[in-house]
UniProtKB/TrEMBL annotation:
It comes from Microbulbifer rhizosphaerae. Keywords: Hydrolase. The keyword GTP-binding does not apply. GO terms for molecular function: 1,4-dihydroxy-2-naphthoyl-CoA thioesterase activity. Its EC number is 3.1.2.28. This is 1,4-dihydroxy-2-naphthoyl-CoA hydrolase. PANTHER family: 1,4-DIHYDROXY-2-NAPHTHOYL-COA THIOESTERASE 1. Residues 51-129 form the Thioesterase domain. It is an enzyme of class 3 (hydrolase). SUPFAM superfamilies: Thioesterase/thiol ester dehydrase-isomerase (SSF54637). CDD domains: PaaI_thioesterase.
Length: 146
C-alpha cells in the first residue's frame, strides 16, 4: 500500500526542481514506488570536487532532495509542509564518473517529524554514501509558516 498523500508524475517532480539547485546539477527523480523514491545524479564537472571525485555536498543535495520530496508527498500539503532539520552523510566510497543513484525510504513517519534514510550507490551498485535526514512537519500558519 502506497504511503503517499499525492502521487505526482515524475515529470511534475522534475519540473518543480528544474530551476533550482537539483536541476542545475542534473538531478533527476526516476522512480516513485509505494514507499520509496529514487533519483540519479551525474558525476561530472558540476558535481565533482577538485580531486576529481563526487563532491560530498553533491551527495547531500541528492539525499536532501529525495528526503524532502518524500516527506512532502506523505503529508496533505494544503495543511502541512515539511522542512529539513538535520541531515548527516557518511561517504563510504569515492565515485569518479558515471551516475550515482539514491533511494529514499522513510524510517519514521510521525505527526510532527519524519526521518528518511537515503542510500546512494555508484554505477556498479556499490554503496557510496548513506544519509539520514530529519524533517519537521509544520502546519501552515505556524511559526511564521505560509
Amino acid at each position: 500500500m502506497a504511503i503517499w498523500h499525492t502521487t505526482p508524475t515524475l515529470e511534475q517532480l522534475n519540473q518543480s526542481a528544474a530551476d533550482c539547485m537539483p536541476g542545475y546539477i542534473g538531478l533527476q527523480i526516476t522512480e516513485l514506488g509505494d514507499d520509496y523514491l529514487v533519483g540519479t545524479l551525474p558525476v561530472d564537472e558540476r558535481t565533482r570536487q577538485p580531486f576529481g571525485i563526487l563532491h560530498g555536498g553533491a551527495s547531500v543535495v541528492l539525499a536532501e532532495t529525495l528526503g524532502s520530496f518524500g516527506a512532502n508527498l506523505v503529508v496533505d500539503t494544503d495543511r502541512f509542509y515539511c522542512v529539513g532539520q538535520e541531515i548527516n552523510a557518511n561517504h563510504l566510497r569515492p565515485v569518479a564518473e558515471g551516475t550515482v543513484t539514491g533511494t529514499a525510504r522513510p524510517a519514521h513517519l510521525g505527526r510532527s517529524s519524519q526521518v528518511w534514510e537515503i542510500r546512494i550507490t555508484d554505477p556498479r551498485g556499490k554503496l557510496s554514501c548513506i544519509s539520514r535526514i530529519t524533517m519537521a512537519v509544520v502546519a501552515h500558519g505556524v511559526n511564521g509558516g505560509q
